[in-house]
TrEMBL record:
The keyword Cell membrane does not apply. SMART domains: CCP (SM00032). Residues 21-83, 84-142, 143-202, 203-262 form the Sushi domain. Residues 262-284 have a biased composition (Low complexity). It holds the Pfam family Sushi. It comes from the Eukaryota. Residues 285-295 have a biased composition (Basic and acidic residues). PROSITE patterns: SUSHI. The lineage of its organism: Eukaryota, Metazoa, Chordata, Craniata, Vertebrata. This is Sushi domain-containing protein. Residues 261-295 are annotated as: Disordered. It comes from Nothobranchius kadleci. Gene3D superfamilies: Complement Module, domain 1 (2.10.70.10). Keywords: Disulfide bond, Glycoprotein, Repeat, Signal, Sushi.
């Protein structure tokens, strides 16, 4: 009985000692830290309770943040910390929002890009911080153009106090002057009207003089810009050049004043006649002593000559 009691007392003492063991400083999970004064301690008595908190830019995503020291061992820490999500950046009128890193989490950035013809006023980039997106959203303001330039002997419309991106003005000339250049100008994204302003010029083409030609239809003097005349040549003449000419912006006829050239009469080629003379045929009458049958044959002459030569040779011998 005494031995049994002694053993029981020994085990009880050991249990008391085990229960009274201190715990070392606990180590938290990713992206968290030990809260309060506990961070200054290295050992914690049995029964101590400590808490963890998520780092800046991280937020609790479930689990308990507290653990307890029991017999020298800390209970399991179930807290999970994840990067804070700032959500979509506020919409910007006449602009678009781009996310260079492809996300809206803590540390990511958002960049505002204005549409064509609009200028950024404010900070273009914002960063996802612990408190949300930094700074104030910028503004995209429409581009304005200076008043269009005036031109001599011309005007434009509409007349406005301010011209903005893609506004169009139309130039016209006064007092029969001709417009040289583009009539329509547009307010561009660089703040200038494009293309450059036209000019108004006085156009007067001289009345053409074309010998041996006659007027068909078209303009009568004075000949202003774009006036046209059609001519034709008199009989016996043919036209060299275009029959219709037009007065251009340089007060010149285009494509040039034609000429009427006298037609060259067609010359006939000499005809070559070939005359064939037919030799009359001779009919030989067998009874006619003058015919071919009574003519001396060439071979007979040859035989006679050879005999004569032979006789001469014999005589000389």
């Amino acid at each position: 009985m005494g031995v049994t009691a002694l053993l029981l007392l020994s085990f009880l003492g050991l249990a008391i000692i085990a229960q009274a063991q201190d715990c070392s400083k606990p180590i938290g999970g990713p992206n968290m830290y030990l809260k309060g004064d506990a961070i200054l301690q290295n050992t914690f008595p049995d029964g101590s309770k400590v808490s963890f908190s998520c780092n800046t830019g991280y937020t609790p995503a479930g689990g308990s943040s507290s653990i307890t020291c029991t017999a020298g061992t800390w209970s399991r820490l179930s807290l999970v910390c994840e990067r804070k999500n700032c959500g979509a950046y506020p919409e910007v009128e006449n602009g678009n929002v781009d996310y260079p890193k492809g996300d809206t989490l803590y540390g990511d950035t958002a960049k505002v890009i204005c549409n064509q013809g609009y200028n950024l006023v404010g900070q273009a980039e914002s960063r996802c911080d612990d408190q949300g997106w930094t700074g104030r959203p910028p503004v995209c303001e429409v581009t304005t153009c200076d008043t269009p330039k005036t031109i001599t002997n011309g005007t434009y419309d509409p007349l406005k106090e301010q011209y903005t991106f893609r506004d169009v003005v139309r130039y016209t000339c006064l007092n029969d002057n001709a417009l040289n250049g583009a009539p329509l100008l547009t307010c561009s994204e660089d703040g200038n009207f494009q293309p450059g302003p036209p000019t108004c010029v006085w156009v007067d083409c001289k009345n053409p003089t074309i010998p041996n030609a006659e007027f068909v239809e078209g303009s009568r003097p004075p000949h202003r810009f774009s006036a046209s005349i059609t001519y034709r040549c008199l009989p016996g003449f043919e036209m060299n050049g275009a029959s219709t000419i037009t007065c251009n912006i340089a007060s010149q006829w285009s494509p040039g004043i034609p000429q009427c050239i006298k037609k060259t009469p067609a010359t006939s080629r000499p005809t070559t006649t070939t005359t064939t003379t037919k030799k009359p045929s001779v009919t030989t009458d067998p009874k006619d002593p003058s015919g071919d049958a009574h003519q001396t044959k060439p071979w007979i002459i040859g035989v006679v000559v050879n005999i004569a030569v032979l006789l001469v040779q014999l005589y000389l011998v």
